[in-house]
Amino acid sequence: MDAQGRGRADNVDPADQWVLNPDTGEYELQLTPSAPQSAVPGPRRPSSRRAGGTATGQRPAAPGRQQTRDAAPSETVPTPRRRRAAPPEEPPGRRGRRPEKKSKTRKVLMWTGGTMALVLIGVGTAGYLVLKHLEGNVTTTDVGSAAKNGFSKDEAFNILIIGTDKRTGAGNEGYGDKGSVGHADTNVLLHVAKDRTNATALSIPRDLIVNVPDCPTKQPDGSTKVIPGTAGVRFNTSLGQDGRDPGCTMRTVKEVTGIQPDHFMMADFNAVKTLTTAVGGVDVCLKHAVKDKDSHLDLPAGESTVEGEQALAFVRTRHAWGNKGDLDRIKVQQQFLSSLMRKMASGDTLTDPTKLYKLANAATKALTVDKGIGKGTTLMEVAQELQKVPPKNITFLTTPVLDNPAEKVPVTVVVNQNTAPQVFDAINNDVSFTEVKKKKKADKSADAARLKGTQSEASEVRVRVFNGGAAGGAAQDTVTWLQTSVGVLKSENAANAPEDVAKTTLEYAPDQAPQARKLAALMGLSGAALKPGKSFTNSQGMPTMTLTLGKDFKGAGVPLTAPTKAPEVDGKSTADKVECAS
Question: Strand, helix or coil at 103?
Fold first, then answer.
C-alpha cells in the first residue's frame, strides 16, 4: 500500500478529504483527524479506489515518511472531483476564496493532499524540468565544486541536462550500449536569462571530440578521487567512463564552451517513457512514414501521438532521420522536447489534478540532481523561475560542428571554430537568440557609468597585468592607463603570460570579489571575463589579482563590451513551433 496515497497507510484516499461547501460551490480540504463530515456540510460520494470500509477522516501521511514507489497508480493518484456551478478547468479553491486567473503557461497549480503540499509548475524544458516535490523521489549526487552550493533567483543560471544510455528499468534491455555504465548520451545546456525573458537550450553532440579535464569525484567513504583527464575522446565518455560523475561532464562543458554550468539534472531511458505516459502522450509529426527495425519505431506519415516505448523509440532512433547520424537525431529530439513542453503547459494537463500528480511523480522519480538544488524547496524555486520564460523565447540550438578531419569516413565531429565561439560568447553574456523586449534603461553616458565611483575605491584595487596575446606593449599601456586615468595605483606590469589566450580574463580570490567587480566596471570587462580562482603575491608582497590581456584586447581604456546581438545559427528553433521530423 502506498503510504503517500493512503495517508499514513490508514486506508485514507486523499480524494475523500475534499468535501463540497454549498455556500461557495467549491470543494475544500478537510484535514481534521476523524472529524464528522457535518463540519463542512454537503454531499460527498465515496471513493471508488478505497479498499475496504475504513473511515475517511483520518490524518494523512507526514512529510518524509517512507513511500512505496512501485504501488499501482490507482493507489497513488487522487481522484479528481467535480464542483457545482464552477468551470471544470479550475482546481478546488480555499474556503471563501477563488483562485486567481493566470495564463496557462504561467500557472502554478497547487493540490494539497494530507499535510504535504504538492506543487507542480506547468512549464519546463527538455522534458526533465517539470518539477514537483514528492518527498524522497529525487536522487542527489555530490559533485563538489563543479556545481554551486545553492540557487539564486536573481541571476542568470545554467543547468546541464544529461540523458544517460544506462539500461536500467524494465524493458530497457534493448536500448543503448550493452553493459554501459551510463554515458552522457543526450546533453542539453540550458541557459536561463537573468531577466527571464528568454532561454537557450544548447545541444552538445555525444560524438563531439573533446578534451575531458581532470575530475575530482566524491567516493562512498567521503574521500575525493581525482580521475585523470583524457584528450581527444568523445564527449559522452565524460560520464561513467573510469568512474566519472556528472561533475566531470559539467567540467567538460566548461572546457569546450567556456560556459560554466551551475547545476545538473540527469535522467535515464525511463524518464521519457514515464513522463510521456503521465501526460497522456506527446504529439509528433513525420514527413514520411517510419518503420525502423533497430528502434522498433513504427509510425505513419503525418501526426501521431506517442508515449512509453514508442516515445523512447522516437527519440532514440537515428536511422530514420536525415543522414542517419546523431546530429539529425538531435534535431528530432529538440522537436519532441518542444512538443512535450507544449503538452505539459496545456490546459488539458494543468487543469487535471490526476494527470498533474502522475506527471509530477514521474518527473521527480526520474531525476538525479546535484546537492545545490536537491532540496524540494529549491527545486520548486528553479521550476518557478523556468516557468517565467515564454515558450516562444526558448531557443533550441546545436553546437556548431564540422566532420572530424582526422577520419577518412567521418563518424565523430569537432567544434567549428569559425562559428561556435560566437554562439558560446552570446550565451555566456546572456544574449537572447530571439527578439525580446528589454526594460528601458536610464539615458546615461556609457563611459560615465563605467567610470562611476570614487578614486578611493579604485585605489584599493591591486592587480598585475600580463600580455597574453594582445599587441606588443599592451600590458604597460594598460598599467599606465589604470594609474593615471582611473586611479588604480596598485597595478604593475607582469610582462608576457606563460601562454597566449583568446579571451581577456581577470582571476581573483573569493575575498577579492569587490575589487574584481570594480576593475571590471572600470575596464568594461564582461562577466565572462571574471574568473574565480586564487590570488598571487605582487612585488610588494601583497595579494593581488591577475589580469591577462588576451587576443581580444582592444587597447588600454577601450571597453571589452559583450555582444548585443546573437549570431545567426543554422537549424535553430523555438519551443512554440510545431515541426515535422524528416
Answer: coil
Residue 168 CB: number of other CB atoms within 10 A? Answer: 12
Beta bridge partner(s), residue 478: none
Looking at residue 478, its amino acid is T
Q: How does pLDDT run across 46-78, given as a tens digit for each residue?
A: 333 333 343 433 434 434 434 333 333 333 434
Residue whose C-alpha cell reads 531557443 in the numeric block: 395
The C-alpha cell 515535422 sits at 580
User: β-strand 573-574 against 394-398: which pairing, if any?
Assistant: antiparallel
CA 90, 95, 96, 102 torsion-angle sign: negative
Q: C-alpha distances in angstroms, 418 versus 34, 246, 254, 276?
A: 70, 29, 19, 38
Q: Is the pLDDT of residue 160 over 50?
A: yes
Q: Which three cell numbers stand for residue 408?
A: 577518412
Residue with cell 586611479: 487
User: 382 is written with which cell numbers?
Assistant: 528553479
How far, in Å, CA of 200 to CA of 303, rounded? 27
* CB-count burial class (<10 Å; 0-12, 13-18, 19+) for 305: middle
Can you tell me the distance from the alpha carbon of 216 to that of 223, in angstroms, rounded to the nearest whole number? 10
What is the number of residues in the chain?
582
